Each structure stands twice: as C-alpha cells, then as structure tokens.
Amino acid sequence: MDCFTGASSGALKGVCFSDGTFKNINSINELNAKCDEITSMCWSGASDQTEVLTAQMDRHLRLYDTVNDKRSSLFKVDGGTGPVKGLHVTNGGSSIVTAVESGEVCVWNEEGAKLSELNAGSDLLVMTNNSIHNQQYATGGIENPLKVWDIEHGQKIFTAKNVRPDNLQLRVPIWDTDIRFMNESQNIVTTTGKHQIRVYDPRSQRRPVKEMEWLEEPITAMTLCNSQMHIVAGNSKGEMALFDLRNKLRVVCKLKGCSGSVRGIDAHPASPLVASCSIDRFVRLHDFNSKKLIKKVYCKARLNKLLMKNDISIMDKREKVNKEELDEYDETWRKIEEGGEVGDNSDDFEASMSSEDETLWNDMRERVQHGQKRKKNKLNDHGDERVLAKKGKTDDRNKRKFASENENVDVKRNKKEGSVQVSEDIIAKSTALNQSSEKTRSNSSKRFADNNWIDTEHESKRFHKDV
C-alpha cells in the first residue's frame, strides 16, 4: 500500500497507486459512522512507517500493523469534550500525545495512563508536532490563536497576536485550520478559515511577518513538500496550489482535478509528488513539477485524513525505468567507444538499432538532399532535370481580373463618347432655339411698327376731316 486514508464512515482504506486500487482494512459491515468516523491519523513511532494510529469519533485509539495485517484497540481518550483533533506518537513510541476540541492536550503511555495534561484553549481545531524539536507542539483553532508548547515541561513558549483591524477598522476573526513548522527555519506557517496564509517568526514578533489571501474559500488542509520554503494547500472548493514562502508569498502553480472540499494532503519528502483526499471520494496523486494528475483512485466513501508512505510503488517503478534507461544509455556508449568512431558500428550496435529508425533516418536524408537540389534549380517539382524554363501560366483568377479591368476601360470610354455626343446635341439645340427666338423677336417688332403706322394715318385723316 502506498497511502492510507480515513473515511467519515469509519473505514480505514489502503490505496495502491501503481494499479489504481484500494483495500478496506477493517470490516465495513460493523461500522457506525456516528461513533467510528476517523477524525485524526498519524504514523506510529517506528521510522519504517509500518503502523498506523487512528482516532475515532468516540475517542477510541486503534492501531493497524501493516506488516502482519492486524488491527488492535489501544484505549479511550478521557477528559474534555469533543472529538480528537490532534494525534502524535513520540519518536521512541513510548508515549502518545492527543488534543481534543475543548483544548485538553494530554500525554499517554502505551497502557493508556495519563502522564501530563495542559489546556490550550477551547474550540481547538489543530495540533501539530515540531519534527526538529520533538517536545514542541503548536495548537490553534476558532478564536484560539497560535500557541507553541513545551510538552515535556508543560510550558507555553509562544502566543501569537491577532493581526491589526482591516480597512474598515473591524476586528479580523481568528480561525486557524492548519499549522506546520518549517524544517529549514524556526518559522511557523498557518492557514485560516478566512482564506489566509500566514508566516510567523517567534524570534522577532508575535504578529505574522508575511501574509497573503488566496481565493475566497476557507483553506482546509496544508502540508510541506520536498522544496524548501514551499507548501501545498487546498480549500473547501477543491482548489489546490503550490505556494512559495520566500520573499513575497505567491502561488507557483495550481493542481487541478479536485471537485470537492480537500480534507487531507500529504507530500513526499524527496520527490515532487503530493497526495490528497476530499469529500468527492477520490484520492489523487499530483506531480507539481509537471502540474499533472498522475493517478486518481475512487474509494467509495467521503475521506477525512490521509497518510502517504515514503516508499511508494509508483515512485519505485519510475526509478526502475529511469535506471534501466540510464544503464542502456551507458552500455550503448561503452560499445561505441570500444568500436572506435561512431561511424565504425560494431555488430552489437547494428543489432541494437531497429529497422524503423533506419527507415526514418534514410527518408529524412533523402528529403534533405532533394530540397537542396531543388534550391539549386537542378530538379523540377516531379524530380526530373529542368530542361527549359516554362512560361508561367496565368491562373483563372488573373484572367478574371484582367477581363474586369478591360470591361471597366470600355465602359469608361463609352461613357466619355456618350458624354461628348450629348454635349454636341445640346449645343445644336441651343443654337436652333436662339435662332427661333431672334426670328420671333424680329416679327413682333415689325408687327408693332405696322400697327403704329396705321394708327398715325387714321389720326391724320380724322384731323383733316375736322378741319
């Protein structure tokens, strides 16, 4: 099995990425989701990751041995109220540290006897261990700021201070959903239900030294990865991304494929692989270097928590393939060097080359030579020698273009001739009209003169008669 995941139904499932299958560790017919739901998981104290410790809703702790395929019940966590929110086994495996929702952090031995207890505050959501300083633990929750504890002495080392009010001078609520200690430094990174990522430096100040907002949904899960000062986080919408915590916080890349609230994330410490589980019942394996989804396994139940082993089958398969390719490459070059120059191919080297590669190479060489000859105008399009340069033919498009241009010229010429003819007709008509008007004017003047003469003669006759 490559990873183990706990479901809301109480089922513990082992997932194998190489063949894309899962296996139910416990009998699902005997489970009751109200009391058997898995709320927290961790590896046991052994460094070989052969034992998985789980906490159920009824606070019972159960241990699963992956080597012998045995599941045993340890004891029930007493004190406080609410489910177990944090679970950790010390390196020696001699003690177990638990944290419940009401804030009681207790240390137990293997028989279930309480060794020490402290109160970290109510509404606790997360408790995590410092891998460098094993006695240090960090807690946080709703209106429960980040605190760092020394479990061995029962003392509080650090208490974070809330950030300053926002632009409207409103208080920013405290809602820490996940906490991690940075391996390369003493910094602490937290995620909140208000879609914020914060980095604390307990050596300098109580408020976060870096902060950023990511999308608009609560960030529900987070984990460290093989890259220094990098984390992988997911939110309640199903978005996952890789973040760079150096200098200014920024998103490096997004990991697509999730469609439900991300509940658990675990990254491989030595390779760019990260596994995640969500309420859409899928376990996914991403490679954040290539930003691709490598595997997706359907587990038939809503998943809450996830643990991934350091030696996973798909990684072994990758390493095996890479090693075989490297060995084959080295062997080929060794044979070439023993045979002399690359052109002096030995029998073994000729046998290793496939006929398909030879055919492809010959075809490419012929095409290159053919192209060079065509550039020198030695061959025509059919591969024959060029004898006489042929006159280029005019295509139909050019013919239509020339015809249309000629038609336009004829139309213009006709229009010009027509306009000249029309102008001559107009001049002739105007000349005739002028002549007719002059003739009419002369006739009218003559008639007027005759009338005047008649009137004068009549008046003279009447004058003489009167006299």
TrEMBL record:
Residues 339-360 have a biased composition (Acidic residues). It comes from the Eukaryota. Signal peptide: none annotated. It comes from Anisakis simplex. Residues 378-418, 455-467 have a biased composition (Basic and acidic residues). Gene3D superfamilies: YVTN repeat-like/Quinoprotein amine dehydrogenase. GO terms for cellular component: nucleolus; preribosome, large subunit precursor. This is WD_REPEATS_REGION domain-containing protein. It holds the Pfam family WD40. Residues 431-446 have a biased composition (Polar residues). The lineage of its organism: Eukaryota, Metazoa, Ecdysozoa, Nematoda, Chromadorea. Residues 337-467 are annotated as: Disordered. GO terms for biological process: ribosomal large subunit biogenesis.
